[in-house]
Design a protein that fits this description.
Chains A, B: Its main location: mitochondrion. Chains A, B: Its EC number is 1.1.99.24. Chains A, B: It comes from Phoenicopterus ruber ruber. Chains A, B: It is found in: Mitochondrion. The structure is a homodimer of 419-residue chains. With 419 residues, chain A is of the alpha/beta class. The first copy, chain A, folds into 2 domains: 175 residues, Rossmann fold (3-Layer(aba) Sandwich); 231 residues, Dehydroquinate synthase-like - alpha domain (Dehydroquinate synthase-like, alpha domain). The first copy, chain A, contains 15 helices and 8 strands. In chain A, the strands form 2 sheets. The first copy, chain A, has a 6-stranded parallel sheet with strand order 1-8-5-4-2-3, with helices on both faces. In chain A, helix 5 runs parallel beside helix 7 and helix 10 packs antiparallel against helix 12. Chain A is globular, with a radius of gyration of 20 Å. The structure holds nicotinamide-adenine-dinucleotide (2 copies) and fe (ii) ion (2 copies).
Chain lengths: 419, 419
């Protein structure tokens, strides 16, 4: 189990110029998205770079919910710039794009599919050395500053997939909670749901000692190893913070305590799932995002339709945990209790229903769209959603309960309407 | 905040030969102590090295509670062997010795004092590259497999000190709880007390944002950064495990669940204190160990007198936390509650007394020697004990409450008798 370097504190972003000097960086690539390029987090970084005289070029063309095309555009920029260090300022979209740019610029002879997860890509192990990458997360969601994962939407196949390798994990994550203050309500909510699902899925994932095949050589083990006593600590801790602070962080942009705690929870849950893995909510979310029709979420300052990642994972969560609870009912009940359920008279065999109910109430309270139907899907889409889930076996096989295609259909169907 | 790689599981030691092959190691240095060289943990490593045909030399001359002389002896062996990887199988004594051997063999022109903590040594930053070191802890105590610290007894000065640098942190820690099964009772107890104090001290250490001076350049920040929201997670989690399992682990060598949990708690607390730091119990323990007279603890299969590290830290803990509670009484009360105190009617201003009392009961239940007097010290030794604490400012300055020499005298005096 490997864990990234993290620096935490209000205002610590101002040191980033010094960090880059310490790294001996002479040509820095600063990545962000168009919206963020006008906002305080990018400003804070620019000020520090100026103060320490760091030479840099800025790429602000990151696509929110990146695609193969948008990754390739960033990679082209990175190859041309011959950078010796990278800084990503943004949410998962920016950090993931920057990881990919660093990887392919450091491995210029590689084909794009080489490092993409099998069976969609070739899933080759990364053996080239990468440049240092400092990630400055501005959402409280993906925990991408702590993981070796970069996710994108493979347009041709209409499915999200990614690159997963310890090699692309950022060198340093700078968690400066001041950056969360500019997030509008729905971005706090959706990125917070991502934290919620990372915690719930990694805590309920197949235990590390039941995963098969278990490659006998440790070097071949996947980054996602199944739930284990160390990732459990992170998952539970993140879940407790979500239970205590997510609603406050969403409702009150001035609630610094709540926003700062969610910012840390995002990293904690990232460390948890980055080692244990996620399972069905994430596996099923990739086609939900990839097949998006015309949905345009509130508060996202972008011109294309998209299903925000956190929303795409949380909408199936009641159905998923009702389904998986059979296997570790105590853990499901414990999660429900942390999220506020009164379980004093609960029967263990109802654990799944109780957790599902708790989640539905949680989402209802936060005005979340009423299921997949509300974001544009109907029963007729289910076969395509199932088909898009099948290649996600890297995560779906970490579900504690194995699933057939019929099971997946039923889970999508049960997620059409929530309330 | 940086955290090591850890692999956890019963029997995972059998993979170590493969790990060394993966590292391309051709000349491995295996370090342990004389006692352990006859016991199952070393056996398991030897079997794996043989199975994978790993070429190695064994050094089993590690001193339990190492000294400058014993470090130098191991360093000599390492320099001569021209090793390309190290394996340490043992408790903190072995792992720390191996860290020092790797460091000085990788930096052959350095003087021994160069890397020793200031003000005793020169405290130079490590800039040379080290060889990979795999640590296989066999006690449930120091967490040395996760830290960049190596402690030794500086005989000339009669005081313990150490080397602290991220560079000497092991590449991988293999936590195989099977290794804890051979530990005799007092070794479980004393190493467990070390975990207890790491957790309590790092949880109550000066907060990271109140430490001064705070070097403006991040590269110059010490490894010990003060308590912070991330180390708090580890410290509290470790403390909960100690509360639940330490007594069981001590009393029943067959209680695998308890011993395995303590083995993990040791690493958790190590990650916590390795980033946050420890304070007075540890600062005062160094002269308690260094000035040892004739004390020979039960169950330690060695021929010199010594005060085991865990015992040397825990004996002052009631006095220390009664003293520090003024500053963060809620944290002290919370710790007392985790350790079993009923705090429903407690007053916050009694937090220190309550935690001290809880600790005394805890130690009494476990037949711990009745204070410093029971291990050979008297009032007449207090000036020397205080004098030996003064150079430990690297840790003592992390105490939430500053101390004068008189305060230190009073703390030693209060620790002469516990019950
Ligand atoms: N790498 C991983 O480990 C990992 C894990 C989960 C999800 N992801 C991926 O990350 C992406 C989602 O990332 P995300 O949820 O962080 O959001 P995002 O990066 O997609 O950003 C969403 C929107 O929020 C805006 N925004 C971000 N920070 C802001 C701030 N502080 N103030 C105002 N606006 C702000 C952005 O400009 C953007 O419009 C998806 O592609 C998802 O698949 C990656
Ligand atoms: N590096 C760090 O972060 C750190 C932290 C705390 C303490 N320390 C240092 O570590 C040393 C103490 O280490 P420790 O408490 O782990 O004990 P230790 O290494 O000194 O070993 C104590 C005794 O236990 C025996 N032993 C160890 N494992 C055994 C097993 N599985 N079965 C039977 N016998 C076993 C040893 O042979 C030895 O006789 C001290 O020098 C202390 O200052 C280092
Ligand atoms: Fe996610
Ligand atoms: Fe210790």
């Amino acid at each position: 189990m490997a864990i990234s370097n993290i620096r935490y504190g209000e205002g610590v972003t101002k040191e980033i110029g010094m960090d880059l000097q310490n790294l001996g960086a002479r040509r820095v690539c600063l990545m962000t998205d168009k919206n963020l390029s006008q906002l305080p987090p990018v400003n804070a970084v620019l000020n520090s770079l100026a103060k320490y005289g760091v030479n840099f070029q800025m790429y602000d063309n990151v696509r929110v919910e990146p695609t193969d095309q948008s990754f390739l555009d960033a990679i082209k920029f990175a190859k041309k710039g011959e950078f010796d260090a990278y800084v990503a300022v943004g949410g998962g979209s920016v950090i993931d794009t920057c990881k990919a740019a660093n990887l392919y610029a450091s491995s210029p002879a590689s084909d794009f599919l080489d490092y993409v997860n099998a069976p969609i890509g070739k899933g080759k192990p990364v053996t080239v050395p990468l440049k240092p990458l400092i990630a400055v997360p501005t959402t409280a969601g993906t925990g991408s500053e702590t993981t070796g994962v970069a996710i994108f939407d493979f347009k041709e196949l209409k499915v999200k997939t990614g690159i997963a390798s310890r090699a692309i994990k950022p060198t340093l994550g700078i968690i400066d909670p001041l950056h969360t203050l500019s997030m509008p309500e729905r971005i706090v909510a959706n990125s917070g749901f991502d934290v919620l699902c990372h915690a719930l899925e990694s805590y309920t994932a197949l235990p590390y000692n039941m995963r098969s095949p278990c490659p006998s050589n440790p070097i071949n083990r996947p980054a996602y190893q199944g739930s284990n006593p160390i990732s459990d600590v992170w998952a539970l801790h993140a879940l407790r913070i979500v239970a205590k602070y997510l609603k406050r962080a969403i409702r009150n942009p001035e609630d610094r305590e709540a926003r700062a705690n969610m910012h840390l929870a995002s990293a904690f849950a990232g460390i948890g799932f980055g080692n244990a893995g996620v399972h069905l909510c994430h596996g099923m979310s990739y086609p939900i995002s990839g097949l998006v029709k015309t949905y345009k979420p509130k508060d996202y300052n972008v011109d294309h339709s998209l299903v925000p990642h956190g929303l795409s994972v949380v909408l199936t969560s009641p159905a998923v945990f009702a389904f998986t609870a059979q296997i570790h009912p105590e853990r499901h009940l414990e999660a429900a209790e942390i999220l506020g359920a009164d379980i004093r008279t609960a029967r263990i065999k109802d654990a799944g229903f109780i957790l599902a109910d708790t989640l539905r109430k949680f989402l209802f309270d936060l005005n979340v769209d009423d299921g997949l139907a509300a974001i544009g899907y109907s029963k007729a889409d289910i076969p395509a959603l199932v088909k898009g889930t099948l290649p996600q076996e890297r995560v779906t096989k970490l579900s504690p309960r194995p699933q057939t295609e019929d099971d997946l259909s039923a889970l999508f169907e049960a997620s059409m309407k929530l309330y």
